[in-house]
Amino acid sequence: MRGILGSIAICCLCLSGKLSAQADSILALPSPQRLFALYDWHHALLAKDSAIAIQHLVTANAVFVKQKAVDLQKMAHIELALDQVQHRRADIRNAILDDAIDFARKNKWADVSAELEYVKASFQFWEDNSTGAIETMVEKIDFLEKNGFSNPYIRMAHYSGLGYTFFTYADYTLAIRYMRKAVDSEIPHESAGFEFGAFNNLGLVYTKTQQYDSAIYCFQQALDIVQLRKLEAWEGVLMGNIGNAYYKKGDHASALPYLEADFQLSIAHNIIGSAVNVSMMLANVELARGNIDKSREYIKFNRDNIDTNILGCNIIYAENMYAYSKRIQDYRAAVAYADTLQRYTARQEKIFNKELLDKVRMREQAARYSKDVELLKAAKKRQILLRNGLFIIFMLTGIVALLLVKRIEYIRRVHKEKMAKAEADLNWFTKSLIEKNELIQSFRDKQEQSGQVASDPSHEKSVSISELTHATILTEDDWKRFRLLFDEVYPGFLVRLKDKFNDLTPSELRLLALTKLRIEPKDMADMLGISTDSIKKTRYRLRKKINLPEEGTLDELVRLV
Fold it and tell me: What CATH topology corresponds to 490-561?
């Protein structure tokens, strides 16, 4: 028995010696190389056994404390906290993070405290979309930008995370700003801590904003990294993203091999969601190449495997089926998918309140401005007692004025970005309605050319056209959504119009709103469910009603209101 215990003791001493030697080898490196070495060593152990990895990091940290290596202590402290909160309930996770934050504060590690508070807020945001959580995330990033991050890994992870948050809310300007900061990192690409996902996320934003060449570059950077690390599953995802960018660029020949590789790798690794997404693109590419049967196979796979509980999946499916239906000239299905897409998009807007981030940014900027002004006022009071007080007061007053100017510029920039987003949403909404009208006209023309529309109104084809025509008429819910989008782009227009001409009917207000958007009379008629001739008569009656001079037009009127 003593022999066994003695052997165990010797093993423990050997292990302790090895860990001490590992810690010493890390300590011997210059900064930031030793941070890279610590991260890679710890994460290599994590991949094998998390419990042993945590135990070894605690032992190594004791050496860092003894040697007063504060940079390594900070990294070890953050890594240990992050290791312990994985897959924990919210209450347990918050308790662990609160203890870690308290420890950082006691050691006067303001950077580590801010970084862990960001982590806590990030978890909270993804659980309940809390406004306060985003405010905290932005506030902590702002603090760290001014005072410095404790290590490059946290810097990259936090920038990438905040960028993805703004991407989720379709604020692509801020998403690109933070994601570009994330990929602009001193971490070697071969390091396990280099988040290739940051390149992937940046590529997704560029794809969304139709900057396809930039998107392909970012995806290729991420693909090079995952191929270096031999992460085959991720290799398929990134190939699919490259294929998607080429596909949306209209380069189907370049897209096809990437999309096929993604589909095969996704199936091989049982990543069905990824295979579902790429299958619709493959269906459209094969259809464009004239391979109808192959296209139908991908459509069937998509329909059989899509997760209808996920709103994003439904949106992608509706988008692709809308494009597919148009391509095969199934106009009835195309209109139905266009309506479905509108409903899903409206639902998504309710979930992700687009005013939320505007409020967050404005509050954060206002708080920062108020803090700066208070500090300057305090400094001003102190400087009054000095001999050169008048000059200093003049200088400080100038700084306050400069801060005010910067705040006004910031508000204008935010307003400009918000208006651009609102205009894009309104244009998409009206464009989708006009496209539906064009689809119905194409369907009607096709049936008339083939002589399939019977004089009997009960004939199936006649009924189909009637149903499609009815589908383009804006419902009350459609008008409510239209009004919200319209009021964002032209705030107060309808109110001013009603005040100026108080006897205008709701129908007349709608017609004037559509006139403001320069929508053609034929498209107006389809949206309102009346004939083009009725539009002309209504416009004529409106001119009389508001006493518009002979030389004036309704188009000029709505421009002036």
Answer: Arc Repressor Mutant, subunit A (1.10.10)
